[in-house]
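Q: Hi! New to this. If I give you a protein sequence and the SMILES for magnesium ion, can you show me the bound structure?
A: Yes, paste them in.
Q: Okay, here:
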Amino acid sequence: MAEEEWVYKESRNIKMEDFLSERKVEGKVYDKRTLMAIFKLMKRGVIKTLESTVKEGKESIVVAAKNKEGEWLALKIYRVEHCDFKSMWKYLISDHRFERIKKDRWHVVTNWAKREFRNMQIAYEANVSCPKPISVYQNVLVMSFIGEDGIPTPTLAQIEEEELDWEKIYEQVKEEMVKLTKAGIIHTDLSAFNILYYDKAYIIDFSQGVTNRHPLALNFLERDVKNINEFFKKKNVKIDENLFDSLKRLIE
Ligand SMILES: Nc1ncnc2c1ncn2[C@@H]1O[C@H](COP(=O)(O)OP(=O)(O)O)[C@@H](O)[C@H]1O
Ligand SMILES: [Mg+2]
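A: Thanks. Here is the predicted structure of the protein with magnesium ion bound:
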């Protein structure tokens, strides 16, 4: 079916023609394929409305949305035009699950979103504290929203309060790392910037996660541990010097 025809057919019932012709969502101009993806998720009943932009990064935009029950969702929309798809491609093909990916911008970005979703699914099923992965379609990943009323909760790096029980948070983060490692996933970008704090810590941003079969899995794990330990050390927490070794044992 031609693209235009598809738009017409699919949008008929929910009067989305204006939305599509303006190519604007929440004041942002999205490319057509992204709009189609959002639209498809609406048609499938995964999302009902887009509410506000939470964070605009170089490679993705996170948008607060709602489903028909009025529950808050977070949409991570990967940007197609601005991403460094060549380095994404290199990362992807080094992951045995994605080694056949073509060097094509759209193909790379959609698989990047798929990888984040798969990693998050494995983490969530292993009971790791992270957003609940709900759906992925093309370059749009839908997950549960961490925070209240569409207002995102801060990352650990953004929290300045000294009163927080950093020791307790460190213990929790260590437990999450054990669960994730046992589930066979190495985050590879784990740091205080990718942990949200609400009622407890939530690990986010799984797009770079690899399986423990990756040739550099241990190096990545060591780097994750280093980032986490350095952060908590600055918070005067007594850190676990054996953390890497004990996690490593879960892989070997
Ligand atoms: N599930 C979520 N709930 C609420 N806010 C989120 C969620 N996922 C991401 N965010 C917000 O978007 C920001 C960027 O998300 P992240 O996945 O780290 O993307 P990036 O690739 O830009 O680093 C987070 O710091 C947080 O503010
Ligand atoms: Mg991040």
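A: Confidence is low (pLDDT under 50) at residues 1-15. Let me know if you'd like me to explain how to read the tokens.
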